[in-house]
Amino acid sequence: METRTERRTGVGLSRRTLLAGTAAAAGASAISWKVIAEQIETLKKEGWEANPVACKVCGGGCGLIIMKKTGVKPSLATVRVFPNPTHPQRGMCGRASQAAMLWASPYRLKKPLKRVGARGEGKFKEVSWDEALDGIAKQLKPIVEKYGESSVVYTSHTLSGIQKWASFTLGTINQIGHEATCNTAGNAGRILAFGKKYQGKNKIDPDYDHASVIMLVGRSINCPMGVAHRLVEAKDRGAKVIFVNPWQPDPALGTADWIPVVPGTDGALIFSMLQVMIREKLYDAEFLARQTNAAYLVSSDDGHPITKAELTGTDSDADKALYAMRTKAGTVVFRGVKTEKVTDPATGKEKEVQSFIENASDVPELEWKGELKTKAGAVIPVKTVFTAYAEEASKYEPAAAAKITGIAADRIVRLARLMATKKGVFEDNWYSSRNGNDVELCHLLCAANAFIGNVDQQGGLCVEEGSGLTSSAIKFDGKTKTCTAPNGTTWEITNTLRADHAYFPEAPGSFFALQKELEEEKPYPVKALFVTASNLLQREANTDRMRKMLMKFDLVVVQDVMPQETCDYADYVLPATMFLEKGGVTGIEFAREMGGAIQRNAPGLPIPDGNESRDDLFPLLEVIRRAWPERAARLGYTKECKTNADFRKWNKTLSEGYGLPKLMADLEAKDPEKAKAVKESLDANGWALVKPKAYGTYPYKKPFDTPTGKMEIYAFWPYLKANRKGVPGLPAWEPVKAYTLPSKPNEFYMVSGKNLQGNSGLGMFGPGSHANSERRAVMNPDDASRLGVKENALLEIRAIDTGFTEKSRVHLSYRIKQGCLHMPGFSGGTRSKLLRAMSPETADWMEEGVNPNWFATGYASPVFGPLANNGSVSVKVLSD
């Protein structure tokens, strides 16, 4: 069936899908950037001004140009959106193309709203800002007095940094990001392989601009468009692009290969490829030996890393951080990382520098298994990390893996040989929480690049250069429980156990974990919630659970641009400004050539007439000032700002000594010519390259942030603390635990995903999303024929594990593997009663289709807490 599926990927594609998918993905390469640049220049001559901005319709941050006709009031007739043709992250998807329409949308929240019905009914009345802020402060203050500051929780997906100004100022540790169904598993994989400093979604990434083969496992590249553009350029250059996914993503249409794997079996596929590489000696032995911990020794019994302290019987922290390595001379040596203070010749200031504790003459031995004797005489069975991998990979001979993954054995062999011989790169993942075994998969994908030896080299998995741009923040010291504001003011936070960390100690943000606190007040009660720019009911796996959680808070405040579903559960809804109304300078997240670059954001659009939206931090701080003036004074916020302009003027005081002024001052001191070039590029293009990528740095010259400093294909990090024991050092594949596997003829894997036409919390409200974004469930035509399902038939879909049942029309396409239903996220299934009250017509089309998180179990992996947003469902035909 695999061959037939691949041959027939074009069957069942609607004209809308072809136009919106293929054109949007491939068009990035096909469109002449020279033509776009000429269009922009023509408009300038006709009296239009060009305003650069990083797009934030989703979290990608691609470079746009907002063209605005000078001398007239901005409107849809006088504002146009273009991709910035010279930008290192250029490209414009369906989400960005409707940015101006979202800015001018009649559905935007315009005034503060106060709930007048029962929570969840979506009944509100408009109130003044004073009434809303006074009301929130009045409800919040007794909650804090009775339950303490930690009873107040802030959550956001993309604006956690803004919320922390308020949460720390109030005195709560509970700013809890909403990442569990997005980047948590990818972050965890990078922590395990490279360390916490490298966990960010863009800190480690493939060098698409020089790659020969790119394998994307579970990644669609529907965000960011700047990367999709680089991917298409790579294909035009002759690179081979391979998508491993039960659903064929938009960028896979055309010349890319699509490997329709059985959901949740990706890890078995990668281990099978490693088995071929090991068996045929295709791996890069030198890289593994010198730059990873492959020759380090672990216990054959429980897998823990062997240290000098264990073998010598000392209790020294220094010896606990020295790890045993086997040499080809038959000896055991100890390696680690040291930190020294040196004087920076460019600045004359003292700085810390890390380097390896190792002797280059010691030749690591990869394959070894034996015993070591401690000083006390105990015998420890040990093996090298490489041996542990070889043993695990031996379970996945291609013939055995084919039965698990649905991918033919000979194809697995060809893929392994291709990746090894062509020095390919495995993409390390972003939107990666799917099946409950994703942490191990993301770590394994990083490790697979080590077997190829393609790390921080051209065309490999690389560390993106930093630009040196800094931002101000409240600094929190967990040891002393002390917060320090940029102005030097300090204060203590009494309870430093973040609520979700009571259950998932290393979670970047697992908001769902508050269920225990809400139901049982363990380990402490949480009573008030501030939600900023996050649609929890579209983001959260197991939507019903989230609804029940929202009902239990004493106070819920939602800040947003649109009347999204979470607003129905709020006591107050506060209208927020959007990115086209804001400015500043930020780093570019996915820059071409992996360089460190910066972006000027100066879109130049005002808040529309009649709209009273405020910047997100403004009302958050104003609530604190009204309830506790002395706490707001910690930041120097002592007087009410009456307008956004007033607040922005005050807000600049928080960033004094940071940002662009500091970067330019540093560049002037080190390299005046470079500083001049950066300024000229910012002024002329809206962006500037600050630091080109220096390949071959990590871990060749500088250690990673791992316990060994090496790239850790076998993570030692979990063994440093007892509360991390749920994470394995060796990222072995395990079958799906997150949901019951489908077994009956009418049962399917539910496969979630996104597209680049409209899938985002903001973008889904746009007219482009209405026209182009698929909202229905998608079924393979062969499954449909078997069950008697016709195109656009009405189905009843039932979650096998939870029993949740909903209806959806169905689209038939060979883009989904047999036995699976694809359900696009952030596209359909909206149930906003507030939106229905504002615009029944809009609510009608936004309610069409499905929200995949309805059917997910809400299973969370240990320690990091990523949620699985795939699941299993049964279907029944209701009508044609």
From TrEMBL:
Annotated GO MF terms:
4 iron, 4 sulfur cluster binding; metal ion binding; oxidoreductase activity
| Cell cycle in keyword set | no
Q: Which InterPro entries match?
A: Asp_de-COase-like_dom_sf (IPR009010), Mopterin_OxRdtase (IPR006656), Prok_Mopterin_Oxidored (IPR050612), TAT_signal (IPR006311)
One of the Pfam families matching this protein, by short name:
Molybdopterin
* Keywords, ordered alphabetically: 4Fe-4S, Iron, Iron-sulfur, Metal-binding, Molybdenum, Oxidoreductase, Signal
Instruction: Enumerate the spans annotated as Molybdopterin oxidoreductase domain.
Output: 108-586
What cofactor is needed? Answer: Mo-bis(molybdopterin guanine dinucleotide)
Does the entry feature the keyword Oxidoreductase, yes or no? Answer: yes
Q: What is this protein called in UniProt?
A: Molybdopterin oxidoreductase
Q: Which organism is it from?
A: Mesosutterella multiformis
